[in-house]
Amino acid sequence: MRMMMRLLLAIAALFVAPAAMAESQFKLLVFAKANTYHYEYIPIARDSLEQMARLHSFELVWTRHPESFDEDLSQYAAVMFLNSPGEELNAGQRAKFEAYMRAGGNAMIVHRAAITPPGEWPWYEKLVGRRVGVHPMVQTGVVTVEDRNFPAAFALPDRWVWSDEFYVTANPFDVRINTVLGVDESSYDPTKIWPGQVSRPMGKDHPIAWYHMYEKGRVFVTTLGHEGAMYRDYTYLTHLMGGIYWTATGRGQAATSKP
Question: Which residues does the UniProt record annotate as the domain ThuA-like (predicted)?
């Protein structure tokens, strides 16, 4: 009887597996490795993103191992660096990721993943599109929507009260980005920072989420997402989903979006 049951289950799997695979719209690799300042978010973000994957019918592969970049990256529609910067990769893994992007792969950079030591991996800095310097302490401020027609902004109000680290950035490689979200510096203190450090305002042009094309792929960057509890917030998660959707598929932008 047991042998018969196993046989029936095996036969059923042959029919169920292809159907389940057909429902997956794309495959996303999420690289999330614990570090000194970002680790409590991991179980919360994983649970929320796995629920998101089920809701939106895409396949999510979660990893904390840089060795995942030694594997075939071409199976992924996009790679997300979630609070885990490219400096975690060794030389061989960096080369494989560069090759993936040059072959038309796509990348999404979230919060801490945008920070990498200046000059250590210039290619990755250009992929991010901005070099992150210091950042003020976590404060409540007003996030402004600069591109209403980009999917990562669809669910956001024009002026969104949000608490985060509003990164200060520079553009040493003169990379052209398309700003999706900015921040109103009059709504918080851009100089409020720890003793011994200095933070200066960026002015009206202060991007905190953006997109651009790099090599032959799409890149979406959001510098928001410092606290673990944010990965339970509906509005923030819709922001992430809009970024995932565009990064993985290239779809969703209204015709009047910036080129």
Answer: 27-247
Helix (H) or strand (E) holding 29: strand 27-31
Q: Using 50, 70 and 90 to split pLDDT, how confident is the model at 41?
A: confident
Q: Provide the β-strand partners of residue 160.
A: 143
| Tokens representing residue 213 in the block | 């094309």
β-strand pairing of 78-82 with 27-31:
parallel
Nearest Cα to 224, choosing from 145, 143, 117?
Answer: 143
Alpha-carbon span 28 to 190, nearest angstrom: 35
DSSP secondary structure code for residue 30 in this structure: E
Q: For residues 190 and 38, what is the distance between their CA atoms, to the nearest angstrom? A: 22
Q: How many CB atoms lie within 10 A of CB 70?
A: 13
Give Cβ neighbours of residue 167 (< 8 Å, ≥ 6 apart): 114, 115, 132, 133, 135, 208, 223
pTM above 0.85, yes or no: yes
